[in-house]
Design brief:
Pfam families: SRP54, SRP54_N. By secondary structure, this protein is of the alpha/beta class. The protein is about 45% helix and about 15% strand. The structure holds guanosine-5'-triphosphate (GTP).
C-alpha cells in the first residue's frame, strides 16, 4: 500500500516538472520572436528604390515588337502618302456619322442632344489652322538635364512609405518562425491591403508556404531572402522592358519612333511625356511632342512648357481640335524634321466615356496612315489601386498597350498594383514615376523594386 503511494507521488512530481519545463520553453520562444521582430522594426530607413541603370531604350519598327502584344500591329509606314481622309482628319468628326463623340457618356442615349465642340462659343476668334507647330524644332537642350547616375542617386528612399507598411509587417510575420493559421491570415491581409489582389495574393502565399515547409526560416535575414525571392519571381516577365523610342529605318530612310502616351485624367500622362522627352534629349536624341490632349488648353500649355525647357518642338491644335489631327501633324512634322522620336500626349477622360476610347483608337489609326506606332504607354496612378487595374483593362481593349508607366509610387503606401497589372494584361511595367520633379522617372526593375519594398 505504502509503495503504491510512493509511486503515485513520484509520477505526480515528474508530471509537474514536465509542465514547468515546457512552459518555460514556450515563453522563451515567444521572447525570441518578439526580439527578432523588434530588430526588423528598428532597421534604419536608408536605401530605397535604386534601379541599377538608366532607362533602357530600343528602336521602334517591326523587329522590336514585344512578345505579349495581343494582336499584331498593322504594317508600318507601308503607305507613303496619306489617304484623303487623313489629309483633313479634323473633318472626320464622329458626330457627323452618328458614331460616339469624345466626351459622350455611355449612359447617354445616342439620339439625345450631345455637346460637341461645335457648340462651344469662343470669346474671340482664334487662329485658322488647326494643328500648328508652336516651338520651332531644335536639337539643343535648353535646360541642363540631370545625368542618369545623379538621378538614380536622388531617387533613393522615394519608396519609403510603401516599404514601411508592406515590407516591415511581412518581415515581422515571417521572421518569427513557424506560422499558425492566424499568422497566415495576417500575411494574406497585408498583401491584399497593399493592392496585390486576390489571385496574386493566393499565389504568393502558396509559394511562401511551400518554401517555408522546405527550408527553415528562423531569422529576419532568412525571411527577407525568402520574401525577396518569391516577390521578385512574381514580378518577372519574359516581355521586353525597353521603351521603343529610338528611330529605325523604313526603306532605307530614317523613321522616328512614335510613342503614344495614354491614361485617364490626372494619372500623370503629360508629366511622364515631358520626363521621357528629357531622358531622350539627355541621351542626344531629338524629339517632337504632340499635344493631342485638346480638351484642356492647360494640358497643351503644360506640354509646351516641357518642350521649351528641354528643347523639343511642340505640335498643338486649337482647344477642341481633333486629337487625331494633332497627333497626325506631330508625326508628320517629326518625319519632315528627321527627329528620333515623336511623343504624343493624348486626352484622358474617364475610361467609362466610350467616346474617348473610340477617339483614342482613332488617334492610333490615323497616325498609322503615315508611321507605325512603336509604343503605347499606359500611365496608371499607383495611388488608385484596384481602380487603376480596371482602367488598364478598358484601355487594353481599345488599343494595344505595350508598356505600363506606374506613377506616384512615391505617394502611396501601396504599390502592389505592379504585381497585378503585369499578370492580368501580360504587359510589362516599363517605367515608374517617383515624384513631380522633371527627372523623377526611373526604369522598372523587379529586384530593385522589391528591395525598396522590404527595406
Ligand atoms: N508625386 C508624384 N506626382 C506626380 C507624378 N507624376 C505626375 N504627378 C503629378 O500628378 C499631377 C497630374 O499630372 P499630369 O501630368 O497633369 O496628368 P495628366 O494625366 O496629363 O492629366 P490631364 O492632362 O488632366 O489628363 C501633376 O500635379 C503632376 O505633377 C509622380 O510620379 N509622383
Amino acid at each position: 500500500m505504502s509503495s503504491t503511494w510512493f509511486w503515485i507521488v513520484v509520477v505526480a512530481v515528474v508530471v509537474l516538472v514536465a509542465v514547468l519545463v515546457s512552459g518555460l520553453l514556450i515563453a522563451r520562444k515567444r521572447r525570441i520572436s518578439i526580439a527578432e521582430q523588434r530588430e526588423v522594426e528598428e532597421k534604419p530607413k536608408g536605401g530605397g528604390y535604386a534601379a541599377s541603370g538608366g532607362i533602357s531604350l530600343a528602336p521602334g519598327g517591326k523587329t522590336a515588337e514585344a512578345p505579349p502584344e495581343p494582336s499584331p500591329e498593322p504594317s508600318p509606314a507601308a503607305e507613303p502618302a496619306p489617304e484623303p481622309v487623313v489629309e483633313h482628319p479634323v473633318e472626320d468628326r464622329p458626330e457627323v456619322d452618328g458614331q460616339p463623340a469624345v466626351g459622350d457618356d455611355a449612359a447617354v442615349p445616342r439620339d439625345s442632344d450631345q455637346r460637341t465642340v461645335r457648340d462651344v462659343k469662343l470669346p474671340e476668334p482664334v487662329e485658322e489652322a488647326a494643328p500648328e507647330a508652336v516651338v520651332p524644332g531644335t536639337v539643343e537642350p535648353i535646360e541642363e538635364i540631370e545625368s542618369p547616375a545623379g538621378r538614380l542617386e536622388r531617387l533613393r528612399g522615394r519608396l519609403s512609405k510603401s516599404r514601411s507598411v508592406f515590407g516591415q509587417s511581412l518581415l515581422g510575420l515571417l521572421g518569427g518562425g513557424d506560422l499558425d493559421e492566424d499568422s497566415w491570415q495576417d500575411v494574406e491581409d497585408t498583401l491584399l491591403m497593399a493592392d496585390l489582389g486576390a489571385a496574386t495574393t493566393t499565389q504568393i502565399v502558396d509559394r511562401l508556404r511551400d518554401e517555408l515547409n522546405r527550408r527553415a526560416v528562423r531569422t529576419s535575414a532568412e525571411a527577407r531572402e525568402l520574401l525577396h525571392e518569391v516577390l521578385t519571381a512574381s514580378l518577372s516577365t519574359d516581355a521586353e522592358r525597353s521603351v521603343r523610342a529610338l528611330p529605325h529605318e523604313v526603306d532605307g530612310k530614317k523613321q522616328p519612333a512614335v510613342v503614344l502616351v495614354a491614361g485617364v485624367n490626372g494619372t500623370g500622362k503629360t508629366t511622364t511625356t515631358g520626363k521621357l522627352a528629357r531622358v531622350l534629349v539627355a541621351q542626344g536624341g531629338t524629339v517632337v511632342l504632340g499635344a493631342a490632349d485638346t480638351f484642356r488648353a492647360a494640358a497643351a500649355d503644360q506640354l509646351q512648357t516641357w518642350g521649351e525647357r528641354v528643347g523639343a518642338s511642340v505640335v498643338r491644335g486649337k482647344e477642341g481640335a481633333d486629337p487625331a489631327a494633332v497627333a497626325f501633324d506631330a508625326v508628320k512634322q517629326g518625319i519632315s524634321e528627321g527627329v528620333d522620336t515623336v511623343l504624343v500626349d493624348t486626352a484622358g477622360r474617364l475610361h467609362t466615356k466610350t467616346g474617348l476610347m473610340d477617339e483614342l483608337g482613332k488617334v492610333k489609326r490615323v497616325v498609322e496612315k503615315q508611321a507605325r506606332v512603336d509604343e503605347v504607354l499606359l500611365v496608371l496612378d499607383a495611388t488608385t489601386g484596384q481602380n487603376g487595374l480596371a482602367q488598364a483593362r478598358v484601355f487594353a481593349e481599345v488599343i494595344d498597350v505595350t508598356g505600363i508607366v506606374l506613377t506616384k509610387l512615391d505617394g502611396t503606401a501601396k504599390g502592389g498594383i505592379v504585381f497585378q497589372v503585369q499578370k492580368e494584361l501580360g504587359v510589362p511595367v516599363k517605367l515608374v514615376g517617383l515624384g513631380e520633379g522633371p527627372d523623377d522617372l526611373a526604369p522598372f526593375e523587379p529586384g530593385a523594386f522589391v528591395d525598396a519594398l522590404l527595406g
